[in-house]
Amino acid sequence: MEKNLSIDGGEEGRERWRRLSIGRSMEEKRVVSDGEEGCRSMEEKRPSIRFGQSELSSTTAVSLRHQLLGVADMGFSKEYEFLTEIGIEPKNSGSFVNGTWKGSGSVVSSVNPAKNQTIAEVVEASSQDYEEGMQACLPAPNRGEIVRQIGDALRAKLQYLGRLLSLEMGKILPEGIGEVQEVIDMCDFAVGLSRQLNGSVIPSEHANPSITLIYYDYVQMWNPLGIVGVITAFNFPCAVLGWNACIALVCGNCVVWKGAPTTPLITIAMTKLVGLMVQQTVSQRFGKCLLELSGNNALIVMDDADIKLALVHEKIYDSVVDQLLEAYKQVKIGDPLDKGTLLGPLHTKASRENFEKGIKAIKSQGGKILTGGSIIESEGNFVQPTIVEISPSADIVKEELFEAVEINNSVPQGLSSSIFTRSPEIIFKWIGPQGSDCGIVNVNIPTNGAEIGGAFGGEKGTGGGREAGSDSWKQYMRRSTW
């Protein structure tokens, strides 16, 4: 018997944005509701997009209201009541397979880093749950339309989801909302892309119609890889999933998402070691691997730069430092959900301990703390915004552009870098073959940030992969020629 599939959910399932699969069997088909009827179907139709996770994975902020595995609902405190608007419960199942939320693995707690309070718990999926979901994964037509509906569902709950992301991760509210918006934008991007995954026809050198009256051509086609695994870090638990999953889904793949264990509700900080392990494991079966690992981003300020807009040229070094120190005095530290907060807590207690260790290391190596450098005694994981001055980096960078670029390129990572200058000659050298060796090379803007239209990723120890933009979709497909 045919079964109708739709991403529209009912009361048992709202705005599901999780890992695993879309589709069920070769006999199934998806029904897409448009317009007002499509909106009303959120209350009328059973959900059919299935999301799940491996035993190492966690649940998501956009999961629907689900079963509590027989555990009584103790309810949320008033501070966390908004979570019910996006289907989060005090205890949540971690896998959704064949229309049912389940989970028989270990329990993971989500912690508010501003207060070190438990927000909610997630029961992880077992290996058996994972395998059941994987077996149900098959490509389906019109993936772009499904991704569009996912984007619409996220758009309807943007404020709630952004608030949860900030609550759980610790970044300020505008950044939390902005990260969810990036996933929505990525859905829109993928919808357009879904109608452009074209193959090609190539004339054959063997064709000789004057003799055989037959034309020969090669046809090149792109097919889904099948299963795409996505491992995301705690600092961008939502956006990085969107960059990968939206494109992978419209390419016809099943997506398995492993979020960071410290952000289970919205979901490894992947070090170089973890990245190498992943790469080696995948390469043993000649599989594709896209790695976007850590960065160590340099910002070079030349003596002709607008310093209000950093390695810093010696002629303006003192002025830049003075203005930075003045700016840091005005940084408001507090709960990331409070209006006006510019600096929230570090993500975990371990992060705060690492901050202290880093400060001690800087001092032991002759560094000078210009401002900050201490933890803030509170129930949360707050630290002072900090500027340090340490040799030899600052001294070498101040001499000339070549040495500044050399220092920029000498680190193991190669994610992002930027230079501040008004000189066209310096700019073209910076972005050219003798300039920065990073994947993202900026001019007169900070090193952070990215847009979905451009390929995001780095070189060297950062991994070499590219997410979003240009032709990144080819990484999620395999090519066949006949």
Helix/strand layout:
Layout: E1 4-5, E2 20-21, E3 29-30, H1 35-44, E4 50-51, E5 91-93, E6 95-97, E7 100-102, E8 107-112, E9 117-123, H2 127-135, H3 143-156, H4 158-169, H5 173-193, E10 200-203, H6 209-212, E11 217-224, E12 227-231, H7 239-250, E13 254-258, H8 272-283, E14 298-301, E15 311-312, H9 317-329, H10 349-364, E16 368-371, E17 387-389, H11 393-397, H12 401-410, E18 413-414, E19 416-420, H13 424-431, E20 440-443, E21 459-460, E22 477-481
Parallel strand pairs: 1-3, 5-9, 12-13, 14-15, 14-19, 19-20
Antiparallel strand pairs: 2-4, 6-7, 8-9, 10-11, 11-22, 16-17, 18-21
What do you see in this structure?
- The chain has 482 residues and is α/β, with parallel strands linked by helices.
- The chain folds into 2 domains: 4-196 and 222-269, Aldehyde Dehydrogenase, Chain A, domain 1; 298-451, 3-Layer(aba) Sandwich (Aldehyde Dehydrogenase, Chain A, domain 2), CATH 3.40.309.10.
- It contains 13 helices and 22 strands.
- The strands form 9 sheets. The chain has a 4-stranded parallel beta sheet.
- Helix 5 runs parallel beside helix 7.
- It is flat.
- The model is unreliable at 1-73, 267-275 and 394-404 (pLDDT under 50).
- Belongs to the aldehyde dehydrogenase family.
- The active site is at 292.
- Residues 107-274, 310-479 form the Aldehyde dehydrogenase domain.
- Keywords: NAD, Oxidoreductase.
- One of its GO terms (molecular function) is aldehyde dehydrogenase (NAD+) activity.
> In CATH, what is the homologous superfamily of the largest domain?
Aldehyde Dehydrogenase, Chain A, domain 1
User: How far is it from the N-terminal to the C-terminal residue, by CA?
Assistant: 35 Å
Unreliable parts: 1-73, 267-275, 394-404
Helical content (DSSP H or I, runs of 4+): 25-40%
Q: How would you describe the oligomerization state of the chains in this entry?
A: single chain
- Computed structural class: alpha/beta
CATH class of the largest domain: Alpha Beta
Give the spatial strand order of the biggest sheet.
15-14-19-20
DSSP summary: helix tally: 13
User: What is the typical, i.e. mean, pLDDT?
Assistant: 69
Q: Tell me the β content.
A: 15-25%
Count of individual beta strands: 22
Largest beta sheet, briefly? Answer: 4 strands, parallel
| Number of separate structural domains | 2
Enzyme class: oxidoreductase
InterPro entries: Ald_DH/histidinol_DH (IPR016161), Ald_DH_C (IPR016163), Ald_DH_CS_GLU (IPR029510), Ald_DH_N (IPR016162), Aldehyde_DH_dom (IPR015590), ALDH7A1-like (IPR044638)
EC number: 1.2.1.3
Family: Belongs to the aldehyde dehydrogenase family.
